[in-house]
## 1
Amino acid sequence: MSDFRIDPISSQQVQRAGNVKTKGGSGFGEVINQAVNKVGKLENEADKSIVNMLQGKADIHQTMVALQKSDLSMRLFLAVRNKAIEAYREVMRMQF
């Protein structure tokens, strides 16, 4: 049992670990920007589908599918946003 020991961690090691940057991966901000762009694209497609339906170029089924895609993507995005904000607030409440 004497083989197990925990070495103290210096503050210099902690600072170096905090400065690690990932290469090739996309950051959180980039992922959020892509999600916002995709939601906006689906919303624009739904708007175009409504206009096409009113002009007689598209049927009601295509329009409803486009609207449901837009609605579902917005709901999912808002749920993820709410969870991220909740996690941020929880971290801010932590005491170190």
## 2
Amino acid sequence: MTGRAAKSLAWIQGLYFLATGLWPLFDIDSFQAVTGPKTDLWLVRTVGLLVTAIGGTLLVAAWRRHITSELVLLAVSSAVALAAIDLIYALAGVIRKIYLADAALESLLVAGWVCAWFMQKRTPAHP
């Protein structure tokens, strides 16, 4: 996928994932103050590292201006997965409702990628 929209989305999602992934790694106390207490901090840190890795990958692709189908799949599938977990467990009362805000942001990212895909399909190829 090419285009300014896709590159912008890679920057936005990459920065968001980098920030939210690094947060529990560098300040677990403030992270838990917002998101609620956690019993398995190793799991919080594992998820943080994985989200950071995805964010870093998106940022490198945006920097190189090389947005591939595989990168879009990574961006969309990770946002869908995180939004689903947020919704299921926040609505069940297992995690705090603040996670619904993350679900909303993840959903906006998915919508952005879908719009970028449709925009690309409508743009005629240049020889």
## 3
Amino acid sequence: MLNSRLDRLTDYPFQRLNALLTEPPGEAPVNMTIGEPQDLPPAFVAEILSSEAAGWGKYPPMTGSVALREAIAQWLTRRFGLGAASIDAERHVLALAGSRDGLYQVAFLAGAEDHRRPVALLPNPFYQVYAGAALLAGLEPVFVPAVPETGFLPDFAGLPAEILARARLAYLCNPANPQGAVAPAAYLGDLVALARHYDFILAVDECYAEIYDGEPPPGALAVSETDGFDKVLVFHSLSKRSSAPGLRSGFVAGDARLISAFSRMRAYGGAAIPLPIQAASAALWRDEAHVEASRARYRAKFDAAQSILGRHPGFRRPAGGFFLWLPVGDGEAAAKRLWREAGIRVLPGAYLARAGQDGVNPGEAYLRVALVHDLDITTTALTRLARVLTAEGVPS
């Protein structure tokens, strides 16, 4: 009676963590597991939601209002240096109820019924929605290590031609979740060429693209612009950029043919963004001041992490995103110890990855630590974390 593919899904990482951390916390708990920004969005969001309250009584357009899609197209053009006429709000942009919504549905857009033993290519570790979507859409996930030896980026081009020929979809997160690595433009360009050669959709999750330490991460649209974004879709969200996860507002943009098909599919099973939220979203995409202020706050937290943990073996300051990908030897054991002794709740890296053919899980030796609280809370938590790791004989 039930879809048998559900049996192949593992428990979601936070369910596994709940089962792991059954002891009481050693100190007042601080949750550093989930990528949920704790800053407030700009005050004008609440003002717009109030002034547009009449829109709660209307069915919203599934594709997004013209004003929202135009604001998104203009932002993409500014942010990624696209040509003035490259992005057409009508043909290249589709609003989503958060980027997760689209990242899940794109696997069904890729389809499996007309392809022999179809596969989806995933970085390993990865955002868990990628694997769940692939499995439920009938695509076999192929997990490609994103480890120190590869710069924490997956080497899709190094896969056997036989696997690439069966690919219908490839996911990439840039900057990477959880490692914080940023893919260079040349890497993205090579990946776009690979997708076109083997005829698969390249789904680039860029939801962390506005949280970076140095130079702005390049975007997949910029490297695919000259050929009309053929085979390329990018996904963005206001959850991270604008500290507004509760709005559930994002978009997908790229290949006009794919956007048209995506829109047709979502007409049957998508969730539309309410009109007041669309109005607030358009204002957020038009405003950069709040994003720059947020980025400065994250840089201050990166500074604190480097000061407190910089001597920890393998510590890396992330180039993008807001996670530390911290080597600790045994992620599960370290997570239990940090909770039991210091009340710090962090996520074992193994829960974000799968064992490869060699039996090794590339996340097993790591913790993912989310720097989403304010600077004071973050500093206190990282100090406790360093104290526990040092007590275990690991210098920090």
